[in-house]
Design a protein that fits this description.
Largest sheet of chain B: 6 strands, mixed
Structural class of chain A: mainly alpha
CATH topology of the largest domain in chain A: MetI-like fold
CATH superfamily of the largest domain in chain B: P-loop containing nucleotide triphosphate hydrolases
Distance between the termini of chain A: 42 Å
Number of domains of chain A: 2
Strand content of chain B: 35-45%
Number of strands of chain B: 21
Number of domains of chain B: 2
Number of helices of chain A: 24
Shape of chain B: globular
Structural class of chain B: alpha+beta
Radius of gyration of chain A: 24 Å
Radius of gyration of chain B: 24 Å
Order of helices and strands of chain B: EEEHEEEEHHHEHEHEEHHEEEEEEEEEE
Shape of chain A: globular
Strand content of chain A: under 5%
CATH superfamily of the largest domain in chain A: MetI-like
Helix content of chain B: 10-25%
Number of strands of chain A: 0
Helix content of chain A: over 70%
Oligomer: heterodimer
CATH topology of the largest domain in chain B: Rossmann fold
CATH architecture of the largest domain in chain A: Orthogonal Bundle
């Protein structure tokens, strides 16, 4: 069919006016927004002179922090990879009881932010403070980042490969080790790197666990009174670790994807028989999910119903305060989602309508860097910039919204890309031939078709903003109190019962939004595309 | 209704030349079918005319207006050209009525225009409120045509509009489209790789090969007198046998046959259509002896492959209509009716 062949070749070639030039400046905004805090941080770090910066970094404290951070990141990645892969194997490829229940539960830990998990564990017992507790909370929160891609890879494997290995003389175990496991490797390593990246940028969970990492120490340096250079110097080291992790993850993603070569109907793979291990394996998996979602939800419920059990209850929780914090959180979520989407849309249009153009690729990569920039680094850079040059913007709601837009730009971009691809080029061309100009086509065809997907992208950013702690804590204007800030304040003062209503509403909000999203599209895969 | 003139049109994608200095004229109100094999540049030609792609060289004129020339590229929305894509490209978020009315500027007589167009493409009026996903493939193509015709375009372009439909549906949609185009009096270009579609629908047929128009004419002359042997085989089945041309006829294994049109004298390849070859009893005057090799029966006709005992190495095919079909191995006679075409033999 000549049409198809030619369309294929014309899609590669230059197309007349796929997007007007006026779109290019706004499409550059996301990348610039990400570049600004990185640049400010570097300038601040070197501001006191590079000799002083190196002196700051050469002290034993930094060595301790580096050890803490790197050890915890490695331990979380490794543990997350082992647990995630084992759980995926059990659920996808064995005769484990209630496999389907586990399969639906798999993404649930995403709805519980790590700092809430942390709040639950320290309120259960102070014994969980320190390295062990921090490892526990982050592993439970982030193991789905390995579980989900490995499970997807297992579902995509062609069982005929295993059969071939068996017919070539390998045992079941040999076939697993030599055929199945190598094909899971990209998913396992990619997932582990994402776990590591999340552990590197995590702040709330570690602070509540009283475990010192780069993020908590940057915060402490900032709190101690504007030792800008010290905080920035630490931030640069953290930034380097994060960007290295992100680069490794991206490189892993570009590696060859193993997939089925042939076509035709797929036979489901034969499950491995667990035998005597069936119930022990079931118990282990139950404990895993209980730890990841059961403990946080259970502890919130406990504190909701056992006010007097808390050591300290500073002030009675008033309904007004709860409602106020909820409304503020929802408002910030909606405003943050709207701003992020508006800023991301031009780049989304450019990159879907001019795929493969060098400019679009560069601008998109730039915006994606946001994944490797910790919230605390963005927040401090914005504070440093506004205090000096734009005092009227410092501690204002618009600045907080800009921070959200930088942090969650990749979320919006993934959603917008998927949504805009809904409107095929043929439909837009039909619109042009019927007399609409480029903008008319955008308003009357492209955006209406993309609307559900854009809504989903907004919902994704909304969840991310409502559960965000670090930037909110540092940038919220005085008097602005969100659910996350309340939980943070009360947990820091060991007022666990006081934090409970806020935590309950926050988890309920995030769970509901996640469920609504999961109905619309595969939330898990989108979050994986983003790196959690 | 307008005349389309294309001169020296070229288009490259990377290093691949898709259209190579193409010239074409479509007279006002005519339906031109552009016939060509896969990858010959058909779709690119339409996309350049519509304005979706920019030409590298050459010009496109509609009546007195130049829509594409070096340094000039009228955007598609200002060309007033209707475009019907392979899969219809109906807007999935709009009803049938909203799809058809999409290109109409004035709101005033929109409803009446939509009703007229629905009738023109043979769809019941109550389809107006339906959504594209509630329609069959053939119905979608009818709506897409109505949408393209609604703003009364100067020119309508149809890109393999029937290829996505199954065979049973194709004929009826083809008839509807041909009727609607005639009724609208629109100048139209349809591209296809299907010879039957080209001959049955086109007022004119142009054959596109490797980015150039190699022959352009009415369907009958194109079929009867194709420009070269390859084209003869592309537009239908052809029997090609060697011969010698002299004084307006050609000597070959099937006798001395009258030539249609002039041909240089000397060795030639003689092109005969299988339906020109008649089977007779052996020994009838003017016939040559032949042996039936095999028979393929199609129902309405049958193709018989024959060998000629007097000219070993030459195989011919005859298309027979009617129910008398010979058996393999049978000895028959063959004769040729009508003019034949001869091409100078390759040296």
């Amino acid at each position: 069919m000549s049409g198809r062949v030619l369309l294929g070749s014309s899609a590669r070639g230059p197309v007349a006016e796929p997007v007007p030039r006026a779109l290019i400046p706004p499409a550059a905004v996301p990348a610039l927004l990400v570049a600004v805090p990185i640049a400010i941080t570097i300038v601040d770090a070197l501001g006191a002179g590079s000799a002083r910066t190196f002196a700051l970094l050469a002290c034993p404290l930094v060595a301790d922090l580096l050890t803490n951070t790197v050890l915890l990141t490695l331990a979380t990645s490794l543990l997350g990879m082992v647990i995630g892969t084992a759980a995926a194997m059990l659920v996808e490829r064995t005769d484990l009881p209630f496999r389907r229940v586990f399969s639906t539960l798999a993404a649930a830990p995403f709805a519980v932010p790590a700092f809430i998990a942390s709040y639950a564990w320290v309120s259960l017992s102070p014994k969980f403070e320190g390295f062990g507790g921090a490892l526990l909370a982050t592993t439970f929160s982030y193991f789905p980042l390995v579980y989900l891609p490995v499970a997807a890879a297992l579902r995509g494997l062609d069982p005929a490969l295993e059969d071939s290995a068996r017919s070539l003389g390998h045992s079941a175990r040999g076939a697993f080790l030599r055929v199945v496991l190598p094909q899971l490797r990209p998913a396992m390593l990619g997932g582990a790197l994402l776990v590591g990246l999340n552990a590197l940028v995590e702040f709330g969970a570690f602070a509540l666990m009283r475990f010192r990492t780069f993020t908590t120490e940057i915060y402490a340096a900032y709190q101690a009174g504007f030792s800008g250079a010290e905080a920035a110097a630490l931030a640069v080291v953290l930034l380097l670790l994060c960007l290295a992790c992100l680069a490794a993850e991206q490189a892993m993603r570009r590696r060859v994807r193993y997939s089925r070569l042939g076509r035709g109907a797929r036979r489901p793979a034969r499950p491995y028989v667990l035998g005597l291990w069936r119930w022990p394996a079931f118990t282990m998996l139950t404990l895993l999910f209980a730890g990841a979602t059961g403990v946080p939800i259970g502890m919130i419920l406990f504190w909701l119903t056992h006010h007097s059990a808390a050591a300290i209850t500073p002030d009675e929780v008033s309904a007004g305060a709860v409602i106020g914090a909820t409304l503020t959180t929802v408002f910030l979520g909606l405003a943050g989602a709207a701003l992020t989407l508006v800023l991301a849309l031009p780049l989304g249009i450019l990159s879907t309508r001019r795929p493969g153009s060098r400019l679009a690729t560069v601008l998109e990569r730039g915006a994606w860097l946001a994944q490797g920039v910790p919230g605390i680094v963005i927040a401090l850079a914005l504070i440093s910039a506004t205090v000096r040059t734009l005092p009227w913007l410092y501690e204002s709601t618009p600045l907080l919204l800009i921070a959200y837009a930088i942090l969650f730009m990749p979320y919006a971009l993934v959603g917008i890309r998927a949504a805009l691809l809904q409107a095929e080029r043929g439909l837009e061309e039909a619109g042009r031939s019927l007399g609409l100009n480029w903008f008319g086509v955008l308003v009357r065809i492209t955006l209406p078709l993309a609307a559900p997907g854009l809504g989903a992208a907004a919902a994704l950013v909304f969840i991310a903003v409502t559960t965000e702690l670090t930037a909110t804590l540092l940038l919220a204007p005085i008097g602005t109190t969100t659910l996350a800030i309340r939980i943070w304040d009360d947990t820091s003062t060991v007022a666990f019962a006081a934090a409970a209503p806020y935590a309950a509403i926050l988890v309920a909000l995030s769970l509901t939004a996640s469920l609504v999203l999961a109905r619309r599209f595969d939330l898990a895969t989108v979050r994986l595309d983003l790196g959690g | 209704m307008a005349e389309l003139r294309i001169a020296g049109l070229s288009k490259r994608f990377g290093t691949k030349t898709v259209l190579d200095a193409l010239d074409l004229i479509v007279p006002s109100g005519k339906l031109l079918v552009v016939l060509g094999p896969s990858g010959c540049g058909k779709t690119t030609l339409l996309r350049l005319i519509a304005g979706f792609e920019r030409a590298d060289a050459g010009s496109i004129h509609i009546d007195d207006e130049t829509v594409s020339a070096p340094g000039l590229h009228e955007p598609p929305e200002r060309r007033r050209i209707g475009y019907l894509a392979q899969e219809g490209a109906l807007f999935p978020h709009l009803t049938v009525a909203a799809n058809i009315g999409f290109g109409l500027r004035r709101r005033a007589d929109r409803e009446r225009r939509v009703a007229t167009l629905l009738e023109m493409v043979g769809l019941p009026q109550d389809y107006a409120g339906r959504f594209p996903h509630q329609l069959s493939g053939g119905e979608q193509q009818r709506v897409a045509l109505a949408r393209a015709l609604a703003p009364a375009p100067r020119l309508v372009l149809l890109d393999e509009p029937f290829s996505a439909l199954d065979a049973a549906l194709r004929q009826s949609v083809r008839d509807t489209v041909a009727d609607a185009l005639r009724q609208a009096g629109a100048t139209a270009i349809l591209v296809t790789h299907d010879q039957a579609e080209a001959f049955s629908m086109g007022d004119q047929v142009a054959v596109l090969r490797a980015g150039r128009i190699i022959q352009h004419g009415d369907p009958v002359s194109l079929y009867r007198r194709p420009a070269d042997p390859a084209l003869a085989q592309f537009v239908g089945e052809a029997v090609l046998i060697p011969g010698i041309a002299a004084h307006g006829s050609a000597d070959c294994a099937l006798g001395t046959l009258p030539l249609a049109g002039a041909c240089a004298e000397g060795p030639v390849a003689v092109m005969i259509r299988p339906e020109q070859i008649r089977l007779t009893a052996r020994g009838v005057a003017g016939s040559r002896p032949a042996l039936v090799c095999d028979v393929t029966f199609y129902g309405h006709d049958a193709v018989v492959r024959l060998s000629l005992p007097e000219s070993p190495g030459i195989g011919i095919s005859a298309r027979l209509f009617g129910l008398d079909v010979p058996r393999p191995g049978e000895a028959v006679g063959v004769a040729v009716s009508g003019d034949v075409v001869a091409y100078p033999a390759a040296p």
